[in-house]
């Protein structure tokens, strides 16, 4: 498993401590043995010092902040980062480790010393499925929670793991309750499909105008979670997260004529595809951008438009992989 650590904070102190003991005793060991013992003791003390120096001290009443990832949620889409907190609301000092992982790697790990009424808050700035684990060895306590992609919305959301007064660990999740138009999270069972219309369907009022549909199909034998973004003039109009079973499909119909950037990302992979829909695509009876997920989460896509029963025929195909 790969391991990466992202740290971003200011004003946090680091504690290092090395304790030494001296004693006198009669020894019949040879000078060589004494030299070896001294060397081993020195090495052990150095290792202990290094281990303690990697533990972050958060002083009473303070909060440390970390940002995990590339901040992609700040630049695209309608969703906000999800915050994860390790909190000590008690009057005692506790030592613990917080680890945050995806399916493929550990993206954050830090050992901390939390004095009374302190917290460490990590902001997850990329959309993904995360496992958060907090361990406090002195309490013989471990707590593990999962942060799902649908917990990233337009609201401010936070998952907190706290030390309790009974010396156990508990978890809570909170969120503001603002409406999130254009933010959709759904599961699509195998062999089924989900439909969504964005904007008013122009075909109902103007028979000379068509619509354009973004279609995502899963032709693999696995279930994949994909993010579907629709942008108009670099402004996000739709941000959908769909967990699609084998042979499942998602259809997003764009009812209003315009220029759109259509993007599909498969979460947990580096697979992404982007297509364009222009006003000309809405002058057709049939127009769609087809994206397919195959084995291993691979993506292929193309945009197809045809004029039927119109004065001019257009047949354009753009393929990318």
Can you characterise this structure?
This protein has helices at residues 31-53, 72-75, and strands spanning 2-3, 13-14, 56-58, 63-68, 82-88, 94-101, 105-114, 118-124, 130-136, 141-147, 157-163, 169-175, 183-188, 193-198, 212-218, 224-232, 235-244, 249-254, 260-266, 272-277, 286-293, 299-306, 315-320. It is mainly beta. It has 2 domains: 4-8 and 56-175, Immunoglobulin-like, CATH 2.60.40; 183-320, Immunoglobulin-like (Sandwich). The protein is elongated, with a radius of gyration of 28 Å. It starts with a strand and ends with a strand.
How would you summarize the topology of this molecule?
Blueprint: E1 2-3, E2 13-14, H1 31-53, E3 56-58, E4 63-68, H2 72-75, E5 82-88, E6 94-101, E7 105-114, E8 118-124, E9 130-136, E10 141-147, E11 157-163, E12 169-175, E13 183-188, E14 193-198, E15 212-218, E16 224-232, E17 235-244, E18 249-254, E19 260-266, E20 272-277, E21 286-293, E22 299-306, E23 315-320
Largest sheet features? 7 strands, mixed
Structural class: mainly beta
Query: How far is it from the N-terminal to the C-terminal residue, by CA?
Result: 28 Å
CATH domain class of the largest domain: Mainly Beta
Unreliably modeled segments: 1-33, 35-53, 311-321
In short:
This protein is mostly beta strands and 321 residues long. Helices cover 8% and strands 47% of the residues.
Overview features:
mainly beta, Immunoglobulin-like, 2 domains, 6-stranded mixed sheet, 2 helices, 23 strands, disordered N terminus
């Amino acid at each position: 498993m790969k391991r990466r650590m992202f740290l971003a904070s200011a004003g946090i102190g680091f504690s290092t401590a090395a304790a030494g003991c001296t004693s006198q005793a009669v020894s019949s060991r040879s000078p060589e043995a004494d030299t070896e013992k001294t060397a081993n003791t020195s090495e052990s003390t150095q290792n202990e010092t290094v281990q303690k120096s990697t533990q972050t001290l958060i002083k009473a009443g303070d909060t440390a902040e970390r940002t995990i990832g590339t901040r992609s949620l700040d630049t695209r889409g309608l969703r906000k980062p999800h915050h994860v907190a390790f909190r000590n609301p008690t009057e005692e000092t506790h030592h613990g480790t917080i680890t945050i992982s995806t399916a493929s790697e550990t993206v954050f790990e830090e050992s901390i010393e939390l004095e009374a009424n302190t917290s460490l808050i990590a902001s997850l700035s990329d959309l993904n499925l995360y496992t958060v684990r907090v361990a406090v060895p002195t309490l013989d306590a471990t707590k593990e929670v999962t942060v799902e992609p649908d917990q990233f919305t337009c609201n401010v959301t936070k998952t907190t793991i706290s030390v309790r007064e009974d010396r156990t660990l508990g978890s809570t999740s909170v969120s503001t309750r603002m409406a999130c138009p254009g933010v959709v999270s759904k599961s699509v069972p195998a062999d089924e499909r989900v439909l969504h219309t964005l904007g008013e369907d122009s075909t109902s009022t103007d028979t000379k105008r068509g619509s354009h549909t973004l279609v995502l199909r899963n032709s693999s034998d696995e279930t994949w979670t994909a993010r579907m973004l629709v942008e108009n003039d670099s402004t996000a109009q739709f941000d959908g997260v769909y967990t699609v079973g084998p042979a499942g499909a998602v259809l997003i119909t764009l009812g209003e004529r315009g220029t759109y950037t259509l993007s599909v990302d498969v979460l947990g992979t580096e697979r992404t595809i982007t297509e364009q829909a222009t006003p000309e695509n809405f002058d057709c009876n049939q127009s769609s951008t087809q994206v397919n997920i195959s084995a291993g989460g691979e993506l292929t896509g193309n945009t197809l438009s045809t004029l039927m029963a119109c004065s001019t025929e257009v047949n354009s195909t753009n393929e990318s992989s």
